[in-house]
Amino acid sequence: MASSSFSAEKVGFMLSVTILAVLYGTAVGRWHWPPFSVLEGAVAEAKMILDPQGPLLNSRDYERHGTRLEQPDRMQPGLTFVASSWRGDDGSLEPELRLLAPDGSVLHTWRVPRTKLFDSGRRKQPERTGMHGSSLLPGGDIVVNQRYVGMARLNACGEVVWALNEGNHHSIEQAEDGSFWTPAVPETPQVGSERFPDGYPGLDGKPVWIERLLHVSPDGEILHDINALDVVYESELRRYLMKASWGGKRRVTGPPTDILHINDVEPLPPSMADEYPTLEAGDLVVSVKRLHLVFVVDPDTREVKWHASDPFIAQHDPDFIGDGWIGVFDNQNDGTERGALLGGSRIVAVQPHTDSVEVLFPTEQSEPFYTQGQGRWEMLDNGNMLLTETESGRVVEVDSAGRTVWEWIHQPYNASRVPEVTQGSRRALSREQVASWPCASDSASKGS
């Protein structure tokens, strides 16, 4: 009898321990209780061992690679600035930014030393983080974001001029005065802010990434530091938090830490401000991927002047393009490999003062184009558009009718994978100008 009682007590004890372990494990994953950081590091280390190049690679979508000129006479003049990673002799991928001639030849290269860019890394394993966000400056300097680590300015020789260890990520947009706007996140998730010291309503005290909109001077000084989550909660935008979908499930009280995922912030240029009747120079257009939301905010008063959500799915890169229009890279992430359900990614223009919407790309004459995540675009001076199909490693220029003018596709890493391309932009530069930079390549001074 005593033996039976002992067995029952033992089973009950083991069952209680199991239940407590399951409950605590759930809390560790949801609220990042200890030992979450240890487990997170172990998982990251395992991924690094199993697939050291994984974060910088995607499935290969195109059999071809290199440059293709379809309509050379319709191409916007200039050189193409691209940001990606290239395979070294040892098989490793290292981030590089390259300046390409129309024929695809490389005129200048900036190599970015990921593990040496900052004095101390804010994120673990900087060797696994690529460059996400870049800007080419006159004279050959560049400004880059090392994804969720920091922001740095390098000269044409690749030497660090200054570095900010602020968790910068995604886009870098240069204002007409030479300063920069970029998103950033703190080193760890936080429960609240000065405005919401007890935590954000509806989140039950759970820590979240509190996104910041940073305004940085050309010398690397922070001029503005705006809490974007406060902006959302203090405006009518807070209703989108309740409509958002995280991880495929609709939640109000239990979202993950990445509640906003801001991927672009860009100021309205003073030279263009008169074309936007309801906005003012310096107003910021902001893209919030998790909420499928684009809004315009005054950086001084924090007043939200306009917003739109319905046309977009997981969008990126809103740009002021003139005549009151804002063009947006609408990823249209539909859960398929190549956008088979909704037709792929597109460029959508919205006009805040009229609530008008137009699809600029694709057209019936366009080639397939789709990237579930990331992606960039820019309107060129001749009316063409330069599109970055990030996950496919492709940059393509199309005319106003959506037809391909010029294309560059990254050389594949192997038979099945290709490096992602995070930036493609056309710059009004000549070979002679590039040849005058410090550390200029010999190819920059040669003819086409």
Give descriptors for this structure.
single chain; 448 residues; alpha+beta; Neuraminidase; five-stranded antiparallel sheet; four-stranded antiparallel sheet
What do these coordinates show?
The model is unreliable at 37-50 and 246-255 (pLDDT under 50). A hairpin with a 2-residue loop joins β14 and β15. Helix content is 14%, strand content 33%. The N and C termini lie far apart (95 Å). The chain is globular. It is α+β, with helices and mostly antiparallel strands and 448 residues long. The protein has a single domain (60-445), classed as 6 Propeller (Neuraminidase). It contains five helices and 29 strands. The protein has a five-stranded antiparallel beta sheet, with no helix packed on it. A four-stranded antiparallel beta sheet has the order 5-4-3-29.
Summarize this structure briefly.
This protein is α+β, with helices and mostly antiparallel strands and 448 residues long.
CATH topology: Neuraminidase
Helix percent reads 10-25%
The dominant shape is globular
Oligomer kind? single chain
Please indicate the percent range of residues in DSSP E strands (runs of 2 or more).
25-35%
How would the blueprint of this fold be written?
Elements: H1 2-31, H2 36-50, E1 57-59, E2 66-69, E3 79-87, E4 93-100, E5 106-111, E6 131-136, E7 142-146, E8 150-154, E9 160-164, E10 173-174, E11 180-184, E12 212-216, E13 222-227, H3 228-233, H4 238-243, E14 245-246, E15 249-250, E16 262-267, E17 284-288, E18 293-297, E19 304-308, E20 316-322, E21 325-330, E22 346-351, E23 356-361, E24 376-379, E25 385-389, E26 394-398, E27 404-409, E28 417-419, E29 423-427, H5 431-435
